[in-house]
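Researcher: Structure for this, please.
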Amino acid sequence: MIAPCFSRGQLEQLARLLGEEVTGTQLSLILKQVSLIDQIELSTKWRRIYNAFVIYQNDKNCSNQIMNFIKLVLEPASYVANSSHYHDVLNNVSAILSFVGFEIREDGRIYECLRSKTVTDAEQRAKTLKKQLEHRDSHKEIFKYCLPELLANNYFHSVFEANKGLFQRIRDLSGLTTDGVALIEQVFSTNPILIINKYTSPSEIDEHKGFCNILKGLCGMFRNTEAHAPKYIWNISEQDALEILGLVSYCHRRLDNAQQIRMV
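Model: Predicted structure, token format:
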């Protein structure tokens, strides 16, 4: 397959991104491995990469070896200890590749994809679920329980793991070992173990009951449904995932100030 050429602006952005991922010695070896010209006298890594790309495209009128260079730089084994950074780089590189109809995935291979026609199209590819949740200042407990799923934009399992994490936190705070609605009723019932406010006035008691019902709703609608229905039946869109995770984040924030008023 002949890979289409990039514009010079796209080549420069790729060069800048990839230049941050290699040492000077690694760069020399990789450029040699894919038979790209290395102008080692240039002052910066990204300029060496950029010039090698431009010379190759001008000579071959394709980007095949540029694609091979990208795969070698972003070899998954090199990022075993830094998966979060790896996914960020993959998404940013894929945003640029998408202008010629390709993307690089977490297996380190390059695949064809729908071509981006606008900057907005390309930017959307670089937005992981994790980044969007960070932008919303979501609770840190969300990331604790489902970071791999968020980085992979796996909406279904991000919601599943986040809900499991929420219920695990309630067990940790209360000292109970039960799960689901039974757990919620034991912890937040009319004789609660945990309270989210002073629990003295009628409005505070109503708020507490409402929080209890939110938790039951999360359990019934998302936790139990996911546990018993195949993924292909229970479809979750990106918008669904963001809104569900926003609700889970809210619940974690209320738990931040929860008080234990009786022992199990």
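Researcher: Any notable elements?
Model: Residues 155 and 238 are 6 Å apart (CA to CA). The longest strand covers residues 102-104.
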